[in-house]
């Protein structure tokens, strides 16, 4: 009866009695016909209203749970898309960081080499002074400071 199929036949049988409102498949069951007037109509209609609310509530519950599930799935998809976007952004950042690290390493290497070259140049200048002084002493000449001043003034910055 909650499906609303042929509920009126059962209600009329109860209201008018099985001898007045006969159902072809229940004639052998009609042994004590008795009409109950309007009481069955009130009971049947109240039962149908309540059962329709239950069925409606079930439909609303199913729809609500499906909407909630769809909302959760959409949220998960958004999070996954955000993670994928972050993964796409990470290689770009990684490439930029790698490039920056390479340039920094090269710069540090060149600075180290420049310092080594400056140290080497200073040693070479000192050695040249010593050689020139020895050479001048052998010839008996004094060392002129102007000759080396020109070398000292030259920039040895890398």
UniProtKB/TrEMBL annotation:
<feature type="domain" description="Ion transport">
    <location>
        <begin position="1"/>
        <end position="73"/>
    </location>
</feature>
<dbReference type="Pfam" id="PF00520">
    <property type="entry name" value="Ion_trans"/>
</dbReference>
<keyword id="KW-0175">Coiled coil</keyword>
<dbReference type="InterPro" id="IPR043203">
    <property type="entry name" value="VGCC_Ca_Na"/>
</dbReference>
<feature type="transmembrane region" description="Helical">
    <location>
        <begin position="38"/>
        <end position="63"/>
    </location>
</feature>
<protein>
    <recommendedName>
        <fullName>Ion transport domain-containing protein</fullName>
    </recommendedName>
</protein>
<keyword id="KW-0472">Membrane</keyword>
<dbReference type="GO" id="GO:0001518">
    <property type="term" value="C:voltage-gated sodium channel complex"/>
</dbReference>
<feature type="region of interest" description="Disordered">
    <location>
        <begin position="135"/>
        <end position="158"/>
    </location>
</feature>
<feature type="compositionally biased region" description="Basic and acidic residues">
    <location>
        <begin position="144"/>
        <end position="158"/>
    </location>
</feature>
<dbReference type="GO" id="GO:0005248">
    <property type="term" value="F:voltage-gated sodium channel activity"/>
</dbReference>
<keyword id="KW-1133">Transmembrane helix</keyword>
<dbReference type="InterPro" id="IPR005821">
    <property type="entry name" value="Ion_trans_dom"/>
</dbReference>
<keyword id="KW-0812">Transmembrane</keyword>
<feature type="coiled-coil region">
    <location>
        <begin position="60"/>
        <end position="87"/>
    </location>
</feature>
């Amino acid at each position: 009866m909650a499906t609303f199929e042929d509920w009126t036949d059962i209600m009329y049988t109860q209201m008018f009695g099985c001898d007045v409102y006969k159902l072809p498949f229940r004639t052998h069951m009609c042994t004590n016909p008795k009409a109950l007037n309007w009481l069955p109509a009130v009971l049947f209609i109240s039962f149908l209203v309540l059962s329709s609310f239950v069925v409606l509530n079930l439909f609303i519950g199913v729809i609500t749970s499906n909407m909630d599930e769809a909302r959760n799935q959409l949220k998960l998809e958004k999070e996954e898309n955000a993670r994928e976007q972050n993964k796409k952004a990470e290689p770009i950042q990684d490439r930029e960081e790698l490039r920056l690290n390479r340039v920094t390493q090269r710069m540090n290497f060149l600075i180290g080499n420049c310092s080594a070259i400056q140290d080497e140049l200073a040693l070479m200048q000192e050695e040249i002074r010593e050689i020139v002084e020895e050479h001048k002493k052998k010839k008996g000449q004094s060392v002129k400071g102007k000759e080396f001043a020109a070398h000292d003034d030259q920039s040895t910055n890398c």
